TrEMBL record:
<dbReference type="InterPro" id="IPR012312">
    <property type="entry name" value="Hemerythrin-like"/>
</dbReference>
<feature type="domain" description="Hemerythrin-like">
    <location>
        <begin position="11"/>
        <end position="127"/>
    </location>
</feature>
<dbReference type="InterPro" id="IPR050669">
    <property type="entry name" value="Hemerythrin"/>
</dbReference>
<keyword id="KW-0408">Iron</keyword>
<dbReference type="InterPro" id="IPR035938">
    <property type="entry name" value="Hemerythrin-like_sf"/>
</dbReference>
<dbReference type="InterPro" id="IPR016131">
    <property type="entry name" value="Haemerythrin_Fe_BS"/>
</dbReference>
<protein>
    <submittedName>
        <fullName>Hemerythrin-like metal-binding protein</fullName>
    </submittedName>
</protein>
<comment type="similarity">
    <text>Belongs to the hemerythrin family.</text>
</comment>
<keyword id="KW-0479">Metal-binding</keyword>
<dbReference type="GO" id="GO:0046872">
    <property type="term" value="F:metal ion binding"/>
</dbReference>
<dbReference type="Pfam" id="PF01814">
    <property type="entry name" value="Hemerythrin"/>
</dbReference>
<dbReference type="InterPro" id="IPR012827">
    <property type="entry name" value="Hemerythrin_metal-bd"/>
</dbReference>
Amino acid sequence: MITWKDDYLLGIEEIDKQHQQLFKIATDIHELIRNELIIDKYDRILKLLAELKEYTIFHFTSEEEYMMSIGYKKLFSHKVEHNDFIEKINNVDLEKIDMDHEQYLLEILDFVLNWIAEHILKTDKAYTAK
């Protein structure tokens, strides 16, 4: 499980807080998956996935507006990466969640956390480089 660390800070308070919130949502998903006291997790999983999707869209919009405000020249390619991520989240197979939610969600979570970490460290850091 990838956790938040200061290496992910960009120095833009609003965006840093949003990145931290994305990690928090991912942590909430992980904790739900691992909670053996909850038998039927399906509705809670759907709620957390919806939260992840909604918050990600909010964050990407905010980040893109910031890049536009500073005249970032690679905004279009950055936006393409954002759109690809949203498409992946939109294509989550709800049937797989219902049948083998733990394994499937761990795969989704692994994708999300790795993507976010890589995206922040490489793509996002590029628009903050002086």
